[in-house]
Amino acid sequence: MSPAFDDGLLDDEASLARAEIDLRRIAEAGARVRRESVTAAEAVADAVARLADSPPRAIVAAGPDSRLLRAVLEPTCPVPFVAWPGPGLPGWAGALDLVVVLAPDGTDLGTAAAVAEAVRRGCPLVVATPDGSLVARHVPGRYSTLLPTVTGDQLATAVVMLELLDRLGLGPDTDAEVVASALDEVAISCSPHRDLAVNPAKLLASGIAETSPLLWGGTVLAARAARRVAEQLRRASGRAALAADAEHLLPVVAAARLTDVFADPFADEDDDLRPSLVILDDGSPDPVVTETRDRLKGMADERGVRVETVTSEAEGDVARYAALLATGTFAARYLQVGLQEGD
Predict the structure, then answer these.
(1) What does the buried/exposed string (b/e) look like for 151-188 if buried means 16 or more CB atoms within 10 Å of the residue's CB?
(2) What's the whole-model pTM score?
(3) How far apart are CA 131 and CA 150, in angstroms?
(4) CA-based, 20 to 30 A from 178: which of 117, 144, 166, 283?
């Protein structure tokens, strides 16, 4: 049987003290963004000066971390954009195409191979990775730029690259300080020192604790945040948590058994957890997103499925994505605290 959730532990000093290292790491996300921005500032300026006068035919984001760049850039990039998470590069990539690479830890062999291939083909290349790492050793070349990173944080590394692409007119407005401030605001509102009644992450953890959460985000970035949060919820609880498009979630919600208000919660207790619906809302005004969200909430209300909503009013798509992800990450750790797992 799954361990019972005790929401009293979310305000218990001893339980929170045992989770302090993890909670502090989550809260320091804004500081990591600032640190990466400062560390790479000179290299970013050099890259802008070198690349500004020669717009690329296309952009190739190489390596396994390219999917985050794809989520941000695909809707707005003014030139063709391709994410290439596998080894190597597309066969057509050449000297007219800008290759960008995120390698937060710099140890992936496939990413190093892609960087070496870009240098061999004479592609303009920008790589964000720790100086001296395996990937960094393959960067030197006539058309290459290394953006040195130090935190190993994927989001902070991506913000450095997105700032560069923004200054080249190839990506959306991205300001590291805005992203860092949004993360700081989440760290304050979700702090372990704020009690359950006013803490959005603790409330989310408590709301989904005895359920199998279904997570949905209407935009590309919100959907990515939903997938990342679902992964963390699975790790924290050992229970099912699914992030998917609405057409995949609606049948699950529709199949949820109706709650029997006369049922004895103790006599009928089992491990067949009811679903809950978690909506990650980044404030998109898109009418399709609004209509889909309303359909999901309407079906959940009809079947008596609990609905939790995570929102952000941060400025800019990247900052809102970061805030949604951080709130979900806090909630996953509080869920673990309440289940007394790892404590």
Answers:
(1) bebbbbbbbbbbbbbbbbebbeebbbebbbbbbbbbbe
(2) 0.93
(3) 8
(4) 144
